[in-house]
Write a structure and sequence with these properties.
Oligomer: single chain
Number of strands: 10
Number of helices: 9
Distance between the termini: 53 Å
Radius of gyration: 39 Å
Structural class: alpha+beta
Length: 381
């Protein structure tokens, strides 16, 4: 790498470090500029290698004289074989020289673009934005579902950030206060925005909304792991997911119904196996019978056992179908569970380290479609 290229790399790294403290848009623009420099460096190295490859002498084809008048056939064959071997050696030498030059492409590109990639790594970070960068739109409230169906967070000045929307679960009384707080600009917003310089995109990862009027917190995303946990528990055994979502009446109903169905299914399966074994034993006795009387007696018992075996088999299949239906209804019930509206995003703080809002803050937990507020009071330090 030349001195000029080293200086250019250092300049790009310095500007990347400075861009890390700038706005998201300018940081993304810097990332695009650095990626362009990486592409230009790679293209330059490729052209240099192509020039070196073209400079490698290509083996010239030569002609072997025909068999002479006084030359033996064996002599001619030896001379022809030697010419072919010489041509193969020259072609192999040419290929080896070309390959050795081309193998330097990746290491040379790595050397020339190392500084640029380090600059990109500097830009691969999260930005913390506040309410001055966004416009919060709650939209209309659905009192039946107890939720704002489509809350929007719209960037005010950024041209690269896209708006996000999500459903926000909140009780009617608190929803009214929240809407008043948003209209009066009495909410604090903290958003975590991730910049991916390699993919050249920015994305809002987490949002924390703090209502200063009623000391409540709301967030995005709406705890994506909650619904997954509910589904996994319900798939393990009916009622477990509903219990995790604090739907206790549904949990008891599915749990005891499924437990009864499983017990009946195992019972029917045991009777089915017993009937099958009895039928097979009678079939063996029937084959070993000697007299006509034995044939008739065993045949009567065999037909009766076969009929009972068919009945037990149908009962087992019905019990198995009932168990599967209960499991399916249980999964459908849990699939309709609404996600929690709390977020794992850390609470926003001011420069002095104090939490926005009152000294005390209540933490809310949402459980499926049934909202239950568990207040846990603590002093903000």
């Amino acid at each position: 790498m030349s001195k000029r290229q080293q200086l250019e790399v250092e300049r790009q790294k310095l500007e990347a470090e400075q861009a890390a403290s700038l706005t998201v848009d300018r940081a993304l623009a810097k990332a695009r500029q650095i990626k362009g420099a990486i592409y230009d460096a790679s293209r330059t190295v490729r052209k240099e290698i192509e020039i070196q490859v073209e400079a490698v002498p290509v083996p010239q084809s030569f002609r072997v004289e025909s068999k002479g008048e006084f030359e033996k056939r064996s002599q001619y064959q030896a001379r022809l074989q030697a010419a072919k071997e010489l041509r193969r050696q020259r072609e192999k030498q040419h290929r080896d020289e070309v390959n050795s030059i081309q193998e330097t492409f990746a290491p040379e590109v790595e050397i020339r673009t190392r500084g640029y990639r380090q600059a990109l790594d500097t830009l691969n970070r999260d930005f913390e934005l506040n309410e001055s960068e966004f416009d919060l739109q709650l939209g209309s409230y659905d009192p039946e579902e107890e939720m704002f169906a489509q809350v929007k967070l719209v960037p005010k000045r950024s041209e690269t950030l896209n708006e996000i929307s999500w459903p926000l679960l909140v009780k009617p009384g608190k929803a009214r206060k929240l809407k008043t707080a948003v209209e009066n600009k009495a909410v604090k917003i903290q958003a975590s925005v991730h910049l991916d310089p390699y993919q050249e995109k920015v994305e809002i990862k987490n949002v924390l909304i703090e209502d200063l009027m009623q000391a409540e917190r709301f967030g995005y995303p709406t705890n994506p792991g909650f619904r997954r946990s509910v589904l996994l528990r319900s798939a393990a055994f009916p009622g477990m997911g509903q219990r995790y979502a604090k739907k206790y009446s549904q949990s008891r109903m599915f749990f005891w119904t499924a437990l009864t169905a499983v017990a009946v299914t195992f019972s029917r399966y045991g009777k089915l196996v017993k009937a099958s074994n009895l039928y097979q034993d009678l079939a063996v006795d029937y084959q070993s019978a000697i007299t006509e009387t034995e044939f008739q007696q065993i045949n009567a018992r065999l037909n009766l056992t076969k009929e009972r075996w068919g009945i037990k088999r149908r009962q087992y299949y019905l019990a198995l179908a009932a168990t599967g239906s209960i499991w399916s209804l249980n999964m459908i019930s849990t699939a309709r569970t609404k996600p929690q509206s709390t977020t794992k995003f850390s609470s926003s703080r001011s420069q002095g380290g104090r939490l926005w809002g009152p000294v005390f803050l209540s933490c809310l937990k949402f459980s499926g479609s049934n909202f239950s507020a568990h207040f846990r009071w603590y002093r903000c330090r």
